[in-house]
Every structure is written in structure tokens, then in C-alpha cells.
Here is the input.
Amino acid sequence: GGDLRVVAGDTANGSLGGGGGRFHYAQLGHGGYTAGGEHKGSVNVTATGTVDVLGGSSDDNSRDDNNFALVGHGGRGYNWSATSANTGPLSSVSLSGNTNGVNVSGATGLNVIAGDHRSFAQIGLGGFEYGGDHVGDVSVSTTTGDILLQASREDQSHAMIGNGGYNSDGTFEGDIRITSGGSLSAIGGSGVSDAW
Here is the structure.
């Protein structure tokens, strides 16, 4: 079957490029790094194999890597105040008659694994310090495979299925549906703070 991988920049796979190994994110959805404003529309992903959503790692010593992996709208904002420009409502209501929500199906498995510092992995709306209302259902499923969520050994690197994220404020609404044809595992991180 066909696998689908959403993989942020990582020293292990040689994909970091320039910039000291920072800000090399991978995303299926609207938004990105410090992209404010409204982001709307459904996100539907189907693979006949395994779906991997993997945060990256870096040898950069700034501890602000931001090599995140996200399926959904949002990304990395700077929500330091209510007037921050890097906030805005997020909605996964379809604009073209497709199925509403953020919907991810991997027949033989689904892995959501965070990377280094601030390099989260998430399926849903939001991300890291992304303010504003986050409204929409999130559905993930496998037919025969396992579902794994694993947070990072580094700080502030969550692994999540749902809306919100680290230091993201606003109203979070929507049903979360998880259907696994195998096991379901959620493993917290080992960082000093906020690796969940």
C-alpha cells in the first residue's frame, strides 16, 4: 500500500538545509510559521498504507527549532498578547461541499511523533502559541494498524490529536473521533516542561 509521510526537517534525513536547522516545518493545511488571519476549509487525508506525522530535530543550539509537523490549519504563532498579529480563527468547515473537519485515515497505521524543542506533531487545528478560536471536528482512523502518539524528550514539543496546542488560547470546539484497527498508545514526553 501507499504510505503518506508529513516529516519536518531533521538532521537524521539530511533535510535541514540552511537556517541553522530551524523553521523547517511540514504542513498539510493553511497557515504556517507566524501566519495570522483566518484559515478555513476541510482537510482530508487518506493513505492505503501508514500515515506518519513527525516533528523534526536539529543540532541548532538556539532551542527554538520550530521543525513542526501539522495536518490541519494553524502552525507556529506568537500569541504574546490579545492583539498579536499571529492569531486568527481556524475552522475546518468545508467550503466546497467536502466532508467537514480534519480527517486522516491510514489503513495500516498512524504515528504522530514530536521532535526536538518546539517541534510538535499534531493532527487538528492549532499548534504552538496559536491564538484565536479553533472550531471543527477531528477524526483519525486505521483499518488494521496501530495508532501511536508520542511526545518529545525535549521541552514544549507535544504530540496531539485535536484542537489547540501549547500556550494556544481561545475557544476550542469539535468532536474528536479515534478509531484504531489495532492498539492505541499515547506516550507523554520526558522534557522538563510541557512535553505532553
Observations:
- Residues 79-85 have pLDDT under 50 and may be disordered.
